[in-house]
Specification:
With 541 residues, the chain is of the alpha+beta class. The protein folds into 3 domains: 129 residues, no CATH class; 153 residues, EIF_2_alpha (Alpha-Beta Plaits, 2-Layer Sandwich), CATH 3.30.70; 163 residues, no CATH class. Helices cover 67% and strands 8% of the residues. The chain has 16 helices and 6 strands. The strands form 2 sheets. It has a 4-stranded antiparallel sheet with strand order 2-3-1-6. A two-stranded antiparallel sheet has the order 4-5. It is elongated and about 190 Å long. The two termini are 53 Å apart.
């Protein structure tokens, strides 16, 4: 802390020793600065504030129906294109700035300068300020007014021009896609007509060849079931007698038929046919016929039903065997009436006739199924021969469908875009989606905004005093005298003691020196105060 105090006292002593050099330097710097500041031209600024907002009613109504041009993006484009070279050259030609142009190089320099001097600053989301500075108040006003006019014209002109260009492009693309779509539809229709039986249907997705193969399998299964039913009916028919024989007692009259083993067997066979197992078997066979019309032989339900039919057939066979063993056998002469007293009568067996009719129907169905199966196999073989001749048929048809679907989706998308563009164009022409309101129109400026002369004068005074003090310190650095005993000891020499400064000059001369120094500083301050009062009066008036 003592060292800092000692150093400060040394600098103050040096400044006092070289006080007149400090005053002279301050006067020179301030004088030159104040005189030079008068040659700095005034800058006048003209500005205008715009409020830009989207239509509060139309924009929500058109959302999702028309092309949505964001206000922010539109304004960003306007700001970037507004200060483009063509617009700036138009600005120069419409104002007095063209008087400053003497050569193409001057025009180039002026355009570059205007690009940096014209400011378009967003103050809030929807509030923008356009400003320009120039030494001429009228010229600054003309520039801002021209920029404002160009801004409004660009807002409507650019949007409508872009709408027209976009609509023209979409119409051209629609015509091109329509031609391609028609060609694709023609190729697709010709291909389908040529290979109609081998291609899947529009709704079912099953081709004629696949349908023929499924039908062959179904007919083969139905024929096998019908043949099995026919064999079963033949076995039953062979076990049942075609006629029923009855005996009548001539003496006693018609006292009822005598017991007959054949009749008992027929009755037992009829009872066997009426068992629940046989009824279930017939019902299962009918269900199998219905299912084979819908599913293939490998379908799980068909396979399960077939297994159930086999079990039912075994049950029916076991029931028939049990009935055959249970038929009683009696001697021929056990209770038979005498031949002279009886008479035999024969009549058709109704059970036999019914089974015979069922057998005929089964044979007829089997014959019809064989004929249908032969025709279906012939048709399947024909389609297989065609399919072998065109191995890449399905892949080619898939490619045609894929190309057609892509073109159709693109065409439909362009149609929707065209309708959205028409709505947007109508909204742009009949109702402005973006509203521009001039909040503060530009005015011819009366007072300069730059330079800040009061601040400049004050800065020059501070710079003069600072430079003068710095000059005094610099001169003190070149001073070879010693101010303290410690400075002598720092040289490494023995110091016996020190003698205080003997003031040679009189007290009056010291006061005169201090007074004259103060007068010089006061005169510098008086000039500064006069300049400040003049600047204040000028700016106030």
């Amino acid at each position: 802390m003592d060292q800092i105090r000692i150093l400060l006292r040394r600098y103050l002593a040096a400044a006092w020793r070289y006080r007149w050099a400090t005053v002279a330097c301050a006067w020179a710097v301030c004088g030159l600065g104040w005189v030079g500041s008068t040659f700095v031209p005034n800058q006048y600024e003209a500005s205008a504030r715009l409020y830009v907002d989207a239509d509060a009613v139309l924009t929500p109504l058109l959302k999702g129906l028309a092309v949505d041009n964001q206000v922010t993006s539109q304004l960003d484009v306007l700001q970037r294109t507004l200060l483009s070279r063509p617009n700036l050259e138009k600005l120069v030609s419409n104002t007095d700035l063209d008087l400053l142009i003497a050569s193409p190089s001057d025009l180039e320099a002026l355009v570059l300068a205007l690009g940096g001097q014209i400011k378009i600053v967003p103050q809030t989301k929807n509030l923008f300020t356009i400003s320009y500075r120039n030494p001429s108040p009228k010229l600054s006003f003309d520039v801002v007014q021209t920029i404002l006019t160009t801004f409004i014209e660009s807002k409507t002109g650019n949007n409508r021009s872009e709408m027209q260009n976009a609509m023209l492009f979409i119409e051209q693309q629609l015509a091109q896609y329509e031609r391609q779509l028609r060609d694709a539809e023609k190729r697709r229709a010709e291909f389908r007509t040529k290979y109609l039986d081998l291609l899947p249907g529009e709704g079912s997705g099953v081709s004629g060849l696949d349908g023929a193969q499924v039908q062959v399998r179904n007919l083969q299964g139905a024929l096998a079931d019908e043949l099995s039913r026919r064999e079963l009916l033949k076995g039953e028919l062979a076990a049942i007698p075609p006629l029923l024989v009855t005996e009548t007692d001539l003496l006693q009259g018609p006292a009822g038929p005598a017991p007959n083993p054949a009749a008992a067997a027929a009755a037992a066979a009829a009872a066997a046919r009426n068992t629940p197992e046989r009824a279930k078997l017939q019902e299962a066979l009918g269900q199998l016929d219905q299912m084979r019309l819908q599913y293939t032989d490998n379908h799980p339900d068909v396979v399960a039903l077939r297994k159930r039919i086999e079990l039912l057939r075994r049950d029916v066979a076991s029931a028939d065997a049990g009935v055959a063993q249970a038929v009683p056998t009696e001697p021929a002469d056990a209770a038979s009436p005498s031949p002279g007293n009886t008479r035999n009568r024969s009549q058709p067996n109704p059970v036999y006739e019914k089974i015979k009719v069922s057998l005929v129907e089964s044979e007829s169905r089997a014959t019809s199924l064989q004929r249908q199966l032969a025709d279906t196999i012939k048709e399947r073989d024909r389609l297989l021969e065609i399919a072998r001749g065109a191995p890449g048929l399905q892949a080619e048809f898939t490619n045609l469908n894929r190309d057609y679907d892509v073109l159709r989706r693109s065409f439909e998308e362009l149609l929707s875009r065209r309708e959205a563009m028409r709505i947007a164009s109508a909204a742009e022409a009949d109702a402005d989606k973006i509203k521009i309101q001039i909040v503060d129109p530009p005015q011819v400026p009366q007072n300069p905004v730059a330079p800040k002369r009061l601040l400049m004068v004050t800065g020059i005074l501070g710079a003069g005093l600072g430079i003068g003090f710095a000059l005094a310190i610099l001169l003190a650095q070149f001073d070879q005298s010693f101010h303290t005993v410690d400075e002598l000891r720092d040289l490494g020499l023995p110091v016996a003691g020190s003698i205080s400064l003997i003031v040679v000059s009189s007290r009056r001369s010291q006061l005169f020196a201090a007074f004259s120094f103060s007068i010089a500083l006061m005169m510098l301050g008086s000039v500064y105060v006069a300049l400040v009062l003049r600047l204040t009066k000028t700016s106030g008036g």
